[in-house]
Design a protein that fits this description.
Number of helices: 20
Mean pLDDT: 86
Oligomer: single chain
């Protein structure tokens, strides 16, 4: 039986690399136990279970989370017990405790062990456990499920990766001088102090969990209900195989037993479509309304700017990536919405290309030029009669066009033009802040990137999507960009510099595009003049704008 099960798992895990597979000889019944698991742990199991279900096997999952699969071969049972402590606390708050949040389990897991086997659905499942061909247990936090696996074949899945504590149970004791514990992250190689600390954690964590604060309390509750059951830690040693959610290519390589198999990335699924620029008039209007409400610039489609991403000179590239600052780079051109998120980004233009031509090499330029971007049609500004288009706002690095406004050049400007430049600068600072935050938070930009240009593009795009991802979640947004991160204005309109500007000398290694004077047509000047007139009109003025230009 064990040989059959192991062959089954090998086939499932190889499915993505070997293409189509013949159908199995018969359908197996598989029980997955993760009664005390977070959503991230269940995500790993769901990919695993759906792969098995696609092969025709029947999978039953016991957890405390809502149903997430619609597969006909998967049955999810929710025990509906509260667990994992106060769900209102973020992972950052839980991690501040002296035990890294482990102390919470000394309360919740014994309570779960006391209640779980009294729940009708769990009790019924326990009574039918011997009908399953294989049981799979989430190795972390789930000792309460061990009564299910007594005298039955079972394996474990190490969802967070290599756990030295579990590896020792299998007989593979890992050296703490180079294998970090789950609660710590160290560079390689470890310093003497880091090795001492890591060794201490290797000893303390298993003792705290298995022999002092958690498992003994669980054992007491389980023994009261199953007096003839062997000790939980004895049952644990009967696992036949563990699948580890890691891979030696992305972490510290360690020696493994045949019963330890690295399957890092098995839960990775085809990616959802990445966020795209607005594709309809309604979506562009949402962006424009946000700019008008928050930044007092109507008809604004976004704030545009570009930066040179410095890198080590690629081999045999000559002057292809050589820029005006005498370094090597590719260009990142970005458009931001009024909430400091990227609406559009183009990465990869060679640094040698004229800065004025960078925008012309992008798909956004092409769609705007041939009127296929679906931006709103020309309309009069509030309280005005002259129709004007919806525009991006940029600086002197860009040529002015019917869809891109830039400031008036020169210094000896009259008051209306100075007001226009202030209002445009106020809206354009959004993309400047986005680049500033990104260069400070993602330290890869602190020095020239030592990768080939195609890999540099991937790194930059990853940072862009991470920026948007972290900005859209309220908890991560608070950590990534806490209050005061971006520029703001006081009640008199005076700018309060964002915290990223205080680190500008350390963080800002993104080079600006070169500012090149360009002559615009009279019609474009009329559009800019209409915006200018609106900003000093009764309908368009803001109370602080004249103080701000003094």
């Amino acid at each position: 039986m064990n040989v059959i099960i192991l062959c089954l798992l090998a086939v499932v895990l190889a499915r993505n690399t070997n293409g189509g597979l013949p159908p199995p000889e018969r359908s197996y019944k598989i029980l997955m136990l993760l009664p005390a698991a977070s959503k991230s742990h269940k995500n790993v199991f769901m990919a695993f279970s759906e792969a098995l279900a696609d092969r025709g096997h029947k999978v039953v999952i016991l957890s405390g989370l809502p149903q997430s699969s619609k597969h006909s071969n998967i049955l999810e049972i929710n025990h509906e017990m509260p667990y994992m402590g106060d769900s209102s606390k973020s992972v950052f708050e839980k991690g501040k405790s002296a035990t890294g949040g482990l102390g919470t389990f000394a309360i919740t897991l014994p309570a779960m062990a006391r209640q779980m086997y009294k729940i009708p659905s769990v009790k019924q499942l326990y009574e039918k456990r011997k009908e399953f061909d294989l049981i799979i247990v989430n190795h972390m936090f789930n000792e309460i499920a061990y009564p299910f696996v007594h005298e039955l074949p079972f394996i474990t899945v190490a969802t967070p990766g290599m756990d030295p504590r579990q590896s020792a149970v299998l007989g593979n004791i890992l050296n703490p001088s180079y294998v970090p514990n789950l609660l710590g992250s160290y560079p390689h190689p470890l310093s003497l102090l880091q090795r001492i600390k890591n060794t201490f954690m290797h000893i303390v964590i298993p003792f705290f969990w298995r022999h002092w604060a958690v498992v003994p309390l669980i054992q007491k509750e389980i023994s009261a209900q199953f007096p003839d059951l062997p000790p939980l830690l004895d049952i644990e040693r009967n696992q036949s195989l563990t699948l580890i959610n890691t891979h030696f290519s992305i972490t510290t390589p360690v020696p493994l037993l045949p019963s330890q198999v690295e399957v890092g990335g098995m839960h990775c699924r085809p990616a959802k479509p990445l966020p795209q620029k607005p594709s309809s008039e309604a979506e562009w209007r949402i962006v424009a309304n946000d700019f008008e409400t928050r930044w007092n610039f109507p008809h604004c489609l976004g704030s545009i700017d570009g930066k040179h991403i410095q890198m080590i000179a690629p081999a045999h590239s000559g002057s292809l990536y050589y820029n005006y600052k005498n370094t090597f780079s590719i260009v990142l051109l970005g458009v931001a919405d009024g909430n400091y998120n990227f609406l559009y980004a183009d990465v990869g233009c060679q640094g040698r290309i004229s800065d004025g031509g960078v925008f012309k090499f992008t798909s956004l330029y092409n769609t705007l030029e041939n009127n296929s971007a679906h931006v709103p049609s020309v309309e009069a500004l509030p309280g005005r009669t002259e129709p004007v288009p919806y525009v991006l706002v940029g600086d002197d690095a860009f040529a002015m066009s019917s869809y891109l406004m830039k400031p008036y050049p020169g210094r000896a400007l009259d008051i209306p033009k100075r007001v226009f430049n202030y209002r445009l600068s106020r809206a354009r600072r959004i993309i400047e802040n986005v680049f500033g935050i990104m260069s400070c938070k993602f330290r890869v930009f602190l020095k020239p990137i030592a990768l080939q240009p195609c890999k540099v593009e991937s790194v930059v795009l990853a940072c862009i999507y991470l920026h948007n991802f972290l900005r859209r979640n309220s908890v991560s947004r608070q950590s990534y960009t806490p209050p005061g991160s971006f520029d703001s204005c006081d009640t008199d309109g005076n700018m309060i510099a964002g915290s990223w500007r205080r680190d500008i000398n350390e963080c800002d290694r993104l080079l600006d595009l070169m500012h090149v004077p360009r002559r615009a047509s009279d019609n474009l000047h009329k559009i800019r003049d209409e915006f200018c007139s609106y900003f000093v009109s009764e309908q368009g003025t803001v109370p602080w704008q004249y103080d701000a230009i003094i």
